[in-house]
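Annex B, item 7. Sequence and C-alpha cells for protein A, then protein B.
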Amino acid sequence: MKIEGPVVVNRRGEARIARGHPWIFRSDVVSDGGATPGALVRVADPRGRPLGFAFWSSRSEIRLRMVERGESLSETWLRDRVEQAIAWRRGVAAGADAYRVVHGEGDGLPSLIVDRYGDHLVIQTLSQGTDRAKAEIVSLLVDLLDARGVVERNDPKVRSLEGLEQTVSVLHGEIPETVEVNEGDVRFRVDLRKGQKTGLFLDQRENHLAARGYARGRVFDGFTYDGGFALQVAREADEVLAVDLSADSLERVQANAELNGLTNVTPRDANVFDLLRSFDDDKERFDTVILDPPAFAKSRKAVDKAVRGYKEINLRALKILNPGGCLITCSCSYHVHEDDFEHLLTEAAVDAGATVSLVEKRRQARDHPVLLGVPETHYLKCFVLRKER
C-alpha cells in the first residue's frame, strides 16, 4: 500500500493525535500534501515532524482516520491488525458462529466492519480509505478465515458523506439466500444481503444471552426486530409477547421461533409506545419487560427529544412490570451518554411511583471494543433494573 503525503495538521489536530483519538477533522488540516482520495498518508505537524499514518478522505468532515502514531508503519500493518482482531475473538466469542471480527476504530482499523456468520463474512468499508483498500482486505480475510463467501453490505447512508455509492454485492465465493447461525442454543436464519445492519444485532449478542438469567413468567419484548431477546428468554419464560412495527421482522420472529421449536412466542404488530400506554390503562401486567429501541438521537440536536422518548417508554414499562420483576432496557444512541441514561431512568422510576434497584450495567458485546478516550466507540447501554415495589 503506497504511502502519500505528508498531510499537515494544526496544533489542535496534533493534540488529538497525542491523546490517541483516531479522527482528525477538516478544520484541523493545514495542507493535504496532494493526497489522493482514500490514500494512506503520512501525518505531520506544521514543523514537518512526523505524527503518524492515516487514511485520507477528500470529502468527509473527518479528513484523517489514524491507523498508527509515530514515525514508522510496518509493511504488514494491515495483516497484523486483522490477525490481532481474529485472535481476540477466539476468546471473547468462543463457541459463537456469528460475531464481529473487526470493529473499526476499536481494532485499529477505522471505518472497517467485518462480521462472521458461519463460513460467510459481511464487510462494510465506510470511508474512502478502507473502500480503496477493499480488494486487499477481502484477500486477507479469505486467507485468514477460509471464508466460503464474502458480501459487502455497503448500504449505510454514511458512505454518502465520503462520496461513495451505496451498494450490496458478493465479493468472493457464494452467499446463500439465508445462513443459519447460533446464539447460544438458539438458531437464527439470517439474510446477509437485506437484514438490519449486517444481518443480526451482533452488538447485543452477550446481552441477549444474559437476559435469560433475569427473565421469568410473562415477558414483554418491545422493538423485537428478529427476536434476539425474545427467543433467548422464551427458553426461561412462560410466554413472550414480541412487539414490532415491521411485518417483515415479525415474520422472521415467527420463522425463527418455529426453527427452535418455541411455541410460547407471540409476534405482535404494534407501536410500542401506544401498546405500553394501552396495557397500563387496562392494568395488564408482565413479570419481565425488555426494551431495545432504535437510536432516538442520531445527532446532538435530537438529544432532548430522545431523552423524553426514552423516559416515556421506560416509565410505561415500569408501570406494567410486576414487583420483583426485571426491566432490561437499552439505548444505542451515542449522544445519550450512560450517565444521562441512568438519570432519565431514575426520573422514570420516580414518576412511575416505583422503588427500583439497579442490578447491572452492560454495554455492547466484547467483540465490539470500546477505546478509552474515544467516547464514540461506547454507544450501547443496557441496564437491568429490578422493581422492588
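Protein B:
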Amino acid sequence: MESAKSIDELQNFNFEIKKIFDDAQDFLPIMGTDYIELYVGNAKQSAHYYKTAFGFQSEAYAGLETGRKDIASYVLKQGKIRIVLTTSMIKGGDISKHVDNHGDAVKIIALHVEDATIAFNETVKRGAKPYLQPTKEEDEHGTIIKSGIYTYGETVHLFIERKNYSGVFLPGYRKWDSHYNPKNIGLKYIDHVVGNVDWDEMNIWCKFYQEVMGFAQIISFDDKDISTEYTALMSKVMSNGNGRIKFPINEPADGIKKSQIEEYLDFYNGPGVQHLALATDNIAETVKEMKERGVEFLYVPETYYDDLLERVGKIDEDLNTLKEHGILIDRDEEGYLLQIFTKPILDRPTMFFEIIQRKGAQSFGKGNFKALFSAIEREQKNRGTL
C-alpha cells in the first residue's frame, strides 16, 4: 500500500463518484453525507438558531404531532447539507444522558450508501462495534434501510439506504411547513467533519477508518506543523475513495500550556466531533451575512495580511474585504482556499464551524495553522482554560 500523500501530492478533487484516492479500498461504497444529527437540550430553540444564524430552511419534523412521545426532532436543510436536531421528552434515556455528559453535540454522522446491509456486515466483520443492526423502516412513501456502527467516543456512523424512498426525510417524519425561513447564506455541502480524540488515539482511529471502513490517509500533520509558542496538536486526514467523505482526526501533543484539544476533551468529557466545515462559493458574502445575524468569528490580527501576497501569490480576491472579515488564505499546488472559523457556538468550548471556499486547493490550510491557533489561544486565555 502506498504511503499517505503529502499536501503537494494531493490529486485535484472533484465530486464525481469516480475513485480519486487509490489507497482507499471502497468496499462500502459511500455516496456522500446523508445528514448530521445533534442531540440537544431544546430542539425547537436550536432549530430557530440554525435557521436565523446559518440560513437553514425547514424540511421535516417528528414529535408529538407525528405520534412520537419520546423525542422532538427538527430537520433543516441548505444546499446539500442536512442537519437534524433531536431532543428527549422523557426523563433519563440515551439522549438526555448524552446531552448531560457532552452538552449539545453531534451524535450521528449519517452516510448515504447504496446498500446499508452490506455496509454494516462489511464494517462489523472488520472489527466495528455494532450500534444498529440493519433495520427496515417504511411508510406510504417507500422503504428506508439503515444500520450503524460506533466510531470514536459515543459518536455513531449510520448507513442510510434510501433508493426505494421518496418521502421528505425518513419514515416517522412529516414535511415541516414554517412561515419563518430566513434567506440562505450560500452554504453548499459539508467539506469535512473533524473529530478530537484522546492522547495517543489518533493512529488507532486512523487505522479504524482504514481497515474497518476502507478509507485512505491523505494528509498528516505533526506537532511541528501545528504548534505555537504554547500549545501543539497532531492531525491526520482520512478520506474515502471518491473524496466525498473526509474526516480529519486530531489528538493533543505536548506543549507548555493546555491545547484546544485538551480543553475540548475536558469540557466534552471525551472524544467527539469538534467542528463541521461547510463549503460556500462566496465566503465573503456568507461571512458578512453570518456576522449580521450575530455569529462570532475568531479574530486574526491585521498583521496577518501584511505579507499575505508574498506567502500565497496572486489571488482573485479583494484583500481589503478579506481583511475586514478576518478570512484566512492558503495555497497548495492545485490552487488556493479561503477559510474562517467561528467561536464555539455553545456555552461549552467544544463545537464550532468552519466556513471554507476552495479555489482549486485540496489541502486544509496548513499555512494558517499558527495564526489560527494563536487566535484560539487568545480565546482560551479569556476563558481561563489555556
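Comment on protein B: The chain has two domains: 30-175, 187-383.
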